[in-house]
Structure formats: C-alpha cells, structure tokens
Amino acid sequence: MTSQVPTPSRVALVTGATSGIGAEAARRLHHDGFAVLLSGRCGERGEALARELDSDSACFAPADLTRDGEPERLLAHAVDRFGRVDVVVNNAASDHTGELLHVPAAEIRATFEINTFAAIAVLQAAGRAMRESGGSIINVTSRLATVGVATMGVYSASKGAMKALTAAAAVELAPYNIRVNAVAPGMTRTPLYEEWLASHEDPETVARTVADGIPLGRPATPQDVANAIAFLASPSADYITGITLPVDGGYTAQ
User: Fold this and answer.
1) Nearest CA to 35 among 233, 168, 170, 182?
2) CB of 194 within 8 A of CB of 229?
3) Blockwise average pLDDT, block size 10, the chain, 254 residues
4) Residue ranges, CATH 3.40.50.720, the chain
5) What gap in Å lies between CA 28 and CA 22, rounded to an integer?
6) Per-residue confidence (pLDDT) for residue 54, from 0 to 100
7) pTM strictly above 0.85
8) What is the CATH number of domain 11-185+221-247?
9) pLDDT on residue 8
10) 36 contacts 229 by C-beta, under 8 angstroms
11) Which one, 42, 50, 184, 200, has least CB within 10 Å?
12) How far, in Å, CA of 87 to CA of 27, rounded?
C-alpha cells in the first residue's frame, strides 16, 4: 500500500496527463488547490510533471486504460494516496484520421477502445468511488462530436458517443450528487497539432487557413481548455451538470 499523505481539501485524477490538454488541466487544478493524481502511458513525462508540481500533492501512476481493471486501480490509488477523489478529468484519448470507406476494422476497434470503452470504464469507476461523497466527472470530447469533417469519421463517432453518455450519466448519477459534464475543444495547439502542421510543405499557410475558419481567429491553447475544465471542477459550477461546453472559438456556432 502507498503511504497516505495528509488528506487535502480536494483531489483530482487526470487521465492522459502527460502532455497537451491533460498536462495543462493538471497544472491548473493543482494551482487551484487540488492534490492531483496524474495518469498516462509515458512514465518519463508523467514523473517530470509530478516533480514540477509538488511531490506531496501530485504523483504519477502509469496506466493503460484499455486493460481490464485499470480504471478501478487508478481510483483506488487516488483514494489510497490522498484519502478521497473529488474530480476526475476523463481525458485520455488517441487521434485517428483516414478515409472512412477504407478504415480497417482493427483501427476502428483500437480508436473506440481508448476513446470510448476505456473512457466509459473510467466514468464507471469514478462514479462508484464518488457515490458516498459526490463529485465531478469531466469528459473531454471534441468539436468533432458535433460537426462533420472528412477523414475524421471514426474519431468523431468515438467522441460523439462520449458526448451522448455525458448527458445520460448526468441524469443517472445526479441522485449521488455526482455532476457529469464535458468540454469539447476545437483545434488546439497541442504537440500533436504542431507535428501535424510541420508535416505540411507550407505550415504557415495551413496555420492561417485553420485560423481563418475560427471566428475568434486562432486555435485554442491547452490553457484555454484547462480553464474550462477548472470552471466545471469548481464550486462555481455546482449547479451545472449534463452539458458539453464548446471551447472552440466559435467554430461550432457557425
């Protein structure tokens, strides 16, 4: 058993916390006073982020959420280390692009395994851990759960399932005082986005085209999305449940 530190006032678990949106969400929640259990597949980045935050109020637990029992183990780890869990940021996911008519079945299954099935398992484990004390579950979906973009159909479907589940889970878990919401980022300047830009012959032109398609004229930053997550995790959102909050600069409002 892990030695338990003094129980903090609030505890958050963030999955997919080793880069991008997950890492910024962990930083923001820690800044807001949460003890944070970071989870992800990259141990080097996860341990580095835990050291950056605070060894007493942040720790890293490597996890492959597609493995049976892994979400339950993570929630148990949070309770064992910090005494409770109040917020779960259900962020771990993988990207996928491909012409819809030619996507191999194995790729479809792999995308749904992490983006949908593992995310559902995390939500279930979080709900069971929060039944006595209440809490907040925040799913990270996508603008693509709402709008269609060519070559993104499988990814869109995996995130659309989580958008639908967010509303249903909010109703079912409300008697336990568990709030379930989602944030839906638009194009966000994560390392994956930067790699995608760099893969083009003229990254600057592609970047301008992306920005021109967003009413606010720029992609989101991971901090923009983390700010929305922090709001939904805060007491200011105590009467908000079942929503999907777009963080897309007005993209889906068009």
Assistant:
1) 233
2) no
3) 63 96 97 96 92 90 95 96 97 94 98 97 98 97 95 96 98 98 95 88 93 96 98 98 98 95
4) 11-185+221-247
5) 10
6) 81
7) yes
8) 3.40.50.720
9) 72
10) no
11) 200
12) 14
Task: Give CA–CA dist 129/121, Å, rounded.
Answer: 12
Burial class of 224 by CB neighbour count within 10 A (0 to 12, 13 to 18, 19+): buried
Q: What is the pLDDT of residue 208?
A: 95
Q: What is the pLDDT of residue 192?
A: 83
DSSP state of 76: H
Rounded CA gap, 70 and 156, in Å?
A: 25
pLDDT at 1: 45
- The single-letter code of the amino acid at 229 is I
CA angle 12, 233, 133 (to 5 degrees): 65
Phi, psi (deg, nearest 5) at residue 60 = -115, 140
Angle at 244 between CA 241 and CA 250, to 5 degrees: 140
97: how many CB neighbours lie within 10 A of its CB? 13
Element (H, E) at 123: helix 119-130
- Nearest CA-CA partner of 140 in 67, 50, 224: 224
pLDDT of residue 7: 62
Count the Cβ atoms, other than its own, within 10 Å of residue 105: 7
Give the Å distances, CA to CA, from 22 to 40, 93, 113, 199: 9, 10, 19, 24
Contact (Cβ atoms closer than 8 angstroms) between residue 114 and residue 44? no
Sorted by sequence, the CB contacts under 8 Å of residue 92 that are 6+ apart come out as 15, 16, 22, 39, 40, 65, 114, 118, 119, 122
